[in-house]
Amino acid sequence: MLAPFSWIRPEPWGIHVVPADCWIDPARAVDRALVTHGHADHARGGHGQTFATPETLAIMELRYQTREGAVPVAYGETVDLPGDVKATYVPAGHVLGSAQILLEHAGERVVVTGDYKRRPDPTCPPFEVTPCDVFITEATFGLPVFTHPPIAQEMAKLLDRLAAYPDACVQVGAYALGKAQRVIAELRAAGHVDPIYLHGALEKMCRLYQDFGVELGELRLVADHDKDDMRGAIVLCPPSALNDRWSRRLPDPITAMASGWMRVRQRARQRNVELPLVISDHADWGELTRTIEEVGAQENWITHGREEALLRWCQLYQKRARALALVGYEDEDD
Amino acid sequence: MEEFAALIDALVFTRSRNEKLRLIAEYLRQTPDPDRGWALAALTDGLDFPAVKSSTIRKLMQERIDPLLWTLSRDFVGDTAETASLLWPQPDAPPTPPSVSETVAALSAMNRASVMSELPQLLDRLDPSGRYALLKLATGAMRVGISARLAKTAFAQAFAVPVEEVEEYWHGLAPPYEPLFAWAAKGEPPPDIASLPTFRPFMLAHPLEDSVVDLADYVAEWKWDGIRVQIVHAGDETKIFSRGGDDISATFPELLDVLDFPAVLDGELLVRGSHQGGEQGGAASFNALQQRLGRKTVSKAMLAESPAFIRLYDVLLLDGDDLRERRWTERRDQLEKLIARLPAERFDLSQIVEARDFDHLAQIREGARDDAIEGLMLKRRDSPYVAGRKTGLWYKWKRDPLLVDCVLMYAQRGSGKRSSFYSDYTFGCWDGDPEQGAELLPVGKAYSGFTDAELKKLDRHVRSNTVNRFGPVRETTRSLVFEVAFDSVHSSKRHKSGLAMRFPRIHRIRWDKPVEEADRLSALKALIRD
Ligand SMILES: [Zn+2]
Ligand SMILES: [Zn+2]
């Protein structure tokens, strides 16, 4: 008789589903990969087969220029894998196409969250609580100082600043996949109808979102416009372009950054951010702990971020937990 | 408190000096008395609430959160007040923020016992940003990059009044500075400070760098290695101020009853000894002065062993006359005359250093190393005494620093802007021949002297060469040599190495140098002059 859950084995470069000989979000090329979502630290190229949602596969195709080995799995769909393993893809609410993966084998249920959040997001379906025996959770914002404020409040901050400086522009640093589109969609929801300007690096991903039916309104490329066109406008760019020579083409830019790390003043200051927007696509501390309660697993495996504090919380609340040391996950894909 | 908290947040995130000035000026214009006065005092660290300490915050948090979760959070955030502001349990009721004045009154009324129940009541009335402002205000460490000078400039800008006048009146007043606002904002007569022993802004010097000056226009004086002070006598009271305008009178009681005519004098505070300037100079090393600084009470033994005196540089006010507009030569004449009215064991004159020409002066300065003098001051003979640093009037010409090659041993995370970087370095020298198994002994700590790009590289080096972790500190492999610059080195019983460096900073990072070639302790010890 095998020990419980011995069929699922965390290795430094990914989670190995032994009987199916497949890997979840592996950090190296494997024959068979189950990919939770399109962020580069989860979706690497070069696998023999890649099981992922159609949206995630489209994102990977955009990045790696190939669809080879793509196996689409819709939300709610269950695929049968070798070794009598079933995998079901469940919405994770993180970015377009993001999924948790429920694995079932020998009467045991394991959920791998990938990255997730519990707040509403107009660009993807909401997280679904999936009861399980082993819950493998991310912990990017796994410290009790992280409480993401309501996004409407952050949008109001952004629009207020824009209104106060009509001759300037606000450049918002936002990750190209997920954050940028969510900020745009939330701006639209807040009634902002003006064209939004994009750094070239964000264009393709925004178009992809639009192709999947996400409404983003009128988007323009910074490169196609004069400085003066952008006065009083919101400009989105990848975080790396903030404080870069690139921003010289903008009219008196006010530097904003949309990230959960902005909750901590010194983090914002390190990036020379003048307008920190606390917007995250990850679960905050309250969501992480609530979700652990709700799924009610026998064991919680914590990975991808600040495991130590969440581990401590589990200990305080008498929940079994362990930290996995997976490599290759960046701590700032927020 | 909301407006004040918003101001603090805006200041934290504003880089431009002009924008900071604008933000403060706008706040001062729009906020009523006495709130704006209290806020101004808070911004310039002018408030002190003895009942609230950083340790108070930690204690309050210990009652509310698991100690490990606190430590992990504190380490990540890098600031106790901010961590507490983020972790404080949000009350169910909507916040009813107190005004700044109400907050100041409540904080002043707290004592070490009541603070544990009263501070939480204030915290419960605020949102995270308000809690941050409150805790920063209460512990007297705003750290929003506002110097007193900047705040005074903002005040001047807010009400279109000259900043020199603001500075001068300011020191005669206590928070919330209502007469200052009455004068600046409401056009009332200026506060009368003539009869008060108040601080006048210091005149400061620029570094000489590579310039050469003509000694026909400039006079040279030693730059003594003590602390620059201003001694003021007015209205039957004597006070001593440090360079930043802090009142340090209580630390030097022997100087408080020796000046008995109205005057404002600028000089170097030293303690008796034969170290600086030989027997003639009669001053002890900075180390001896250090023993007396920062002590609230001074023992009789200490007064007898290390009596303080002031070596005078300049005179600003004398017998009711303001001499600051006059030339240096005229003020010097007055100074040489007035010295006769002062007791010789408490005051002497900073002597002029005579030199044939600049080259000769340079030679004299070279020789100053042995005398443990900080260097030379060059003062324009016709210069008035003006507040702050005006180009071309006064120069300081420090002697070259001493250099030693040390090995990085420990690195600690910085605070504030550097909280995610290992930016504070402890380094050591070999206690013998490293080839024969000698050990490194820590000799100093530095957190400056490198660029941001170098900091990143150092941070990476520390992270990838860690052998041990102790909270925010990492011990590294013995793999990197720093060329460390420092002003002087003194013997010290408190350190295992037996010595303490003064103003150590990283001069160069020697990525190329093998650690075995770093200096030995004996080389450093040879530089000690106590
Ligand atoms: Zn992600
Ligand atoms: Zn991730």
UniProtKB/TrEMBL annotation, chain B:
Pfam family, one: DNA_ligase_A_C
ATP-dependent DNA ligase family profile domain location: 301-431
Keywords, ordered alphabetically: ATP-binding, Cell cycle, Cell division, DNA damage, DNA recombination, DNA repair, DNA replication, Ligase, Magnesium, Metal-binding, Nucleotide-binding
Enzyme's top EC category: ligase
GO molecular function: ATP binding; DNA binding; DNA ligase (ATP) activity; metal ion binding
Catalytic activity: ATP + (deoxyribonucleotide)n-3'-hydroxyl + 5'-phospho-(deoxyribonucleotide)m = (deoxyribonucleotide)n+m + AMP + diphosphate
Enzyme Commission code: 6.5.1.1
One of the protein's GO biological processes: DNA recombination
Signal peptide from the UniProt entry: none
InterPro entries named in the record: ATP-dep_DNA_ligase, ATP_dep_DNA_lig_pp_1105_fam, DNA_ligase_ATP-dep_C, DNA_ligase_ATP-dep_cent, DNA_ligase_ATP-dep_CS, DNA_ligase_N_sf, NA-bd_OB-fold
PROSITE patterns given in the database record: DNA_LIGASE_A1 (PS00697), DNA_LIGASE_A3 (PS50160)
Protein's recorded name: DNA ligase (ATP)
